[in-house]
Amino acid sequence: MTRPAAGARRRTRVVVWSAGLVTAGAVLAGCANADAQAQARQACTHVTKALSLFAAAQALSPGQAAPDLNASLAELRAALPIAAVAAGQSAHWQPLMTTLSESSRVPESYLVHALGAECADADNPGL
Predict the structure, then answer these.
(1) Residue 65 burial by CB count (10 A; 0-12/13-18/19+): exposed, middle or buried?
(2) C-alpha span between 75 and 77 (Å, rounded)
(3) b/e for 88-102, b at 16 or more Cβ within 10 A?
(4) Residue 62 burial (CB count, 10 A)
(5) What angle do CA 31, 78, 58 make, to 5 degrees?
């Protein structure tokens, strides 16, 4: 049996290393997505609480609603840094982070639908 030429061995080594790097990248990306989804779920627990407080405040007079509205906004602000971590790990969560970042400039009533839809993805096991 003859030995392969040095060039053939080198190409084989390069192919094996390339396949290993691609596999490692896929594994790491899968881990990052799982971590990102866990972070998004954590952020969405704050969002869910905020949306609940906001909904409860809608049935109250403005004076009575103020504490609930303030607490709701505080929950959204608490969710923002967690969502930012998720967005840094997976671009899928960038809309959630962006919507949360608008909470300081846009009335919460304009964000409710988007936040609900974005957090619905957090429980999707297929992500």
Answers:
(1) middle
(2) 5
(3) ebbebbebbbebbbb
(4) 8
(5) 125
Q: Which residues of the chain have pLDDT under 70?
A: 1-33, 125-127
Structure tokens at 59: 């049935």
- The pTM score is 0.72
Q: Residue 122 has what pLDDT?
A: 87
Residues 44, 122 contacting (CB under 8 angstroms): yes
pLDDT of residue 107: 96
Q: Which two tokens stand for residue 31?
A: 């881990």
Q: What is the DSSP string of the chain?
A: -PPPPHHHHHHHHHHHHHHHHHHHHHHHHHHHHHHHHHHHHHHHHHHHHHHHHHHHHTTS-HHHHHHHHHHHHHHHHHHHHHHHHHHHH-GGGHHHHHHHHGGGTS-HHHHHHHHHHHHHGGG-TT-
* Length reported for the chain: 127
